[in-house]
Amino acid sequence: MIHELTNPLTKTLVTHLRDQRRDAVRFRHTIAELTKQLVYEAFHDFPLLDRTVITWTGELSCKTIDEESIVVVTVLRAGMPMLDSVMELLPDAHAGFLAMKRDETTHESVLYYDRLPDCKGKTILLVDPMVATGGSMIDALELIKSRKPSRIITLNIIGSPEGLDVVKSAYPEIDIYIAQIDEKLNEDKYIIPGLGDAGDRSYNTVG
């Protein structure tokens, strides 16, 4: 199921991201803030465990997420600010990494690196700012599914209707949390109006 955030603050932050005058530091910071909003929405019904902590009045049984049952998987480079943001909220979660590149002739993604921890029985948070054609998301999900997780949730900033339809058709059981669904893909398969290249804008990389 696709869950698009409707909070006015979310839409305001997306507008900040679209502004090409926003420097890399502020761009990464805004991505991180939006990611936290996505996490809050995605975890609204997440199961809780009992945990005993030591408070100023003594022992107390409290509720907590089982962070060690969560694997946060990011797509390099653009997903790194999102990964860092999630790990600030869930410091005991595990992290995994995928690297893909875009074939400029076919407009398809090519997976060339993966480093994933044990995913069996875990909840996977797949974080990637952009869903354009959906190809890179499909490739990532195919690999992750082969590791037998119990659940997969994706966190995305911007997506095209076409790309999201592709992902939803292939994996209808996956929950997709996204800050903004944009208008369309152009003939070069870029999201319109989009953000530009999220990786380049995050790290001042051109070419």
From TrEMBL:
Copy the pathway line from the protein's UniProt record. Pyrimidine metabolism; UMP biosynthesis via salvage pathway; UMP from uracil: step 1/1
Which cofactor does this sequence's record say it needs? Mg(2+)
Per UniProt, what is the name of the gene that codes for the protein in this document?
upp
InterPro entries with a match to the protein in the record? PRTase-like, PRTase_dom, UPRT, UPRTase/APRTase
Descriptive protein name? Uracil phosphoribosyltransferase
The family annotation for this protein states: Belongs to the UPRTase family.
Record-linked Gene3D superfamilies: 3.40.50.2020
Q: Which GO terms describe its molecular function?
A: GTP binding; uracil phosphoribosyltransferase activity
- Its biological purpose: Catalyzes the conversion of uracil and 5-phospho-alpha-D-ribose 1-diphosphate (PRPP) to UMP and diphosphate.
Top-level taxonomic group:
Bacteria
What GO terms describe the biological role, i.e. biological process, of this protein? UMP salvage; uracil salvage
Q: Where is the Phosphoribosyltransferase domain?
A: 6-205
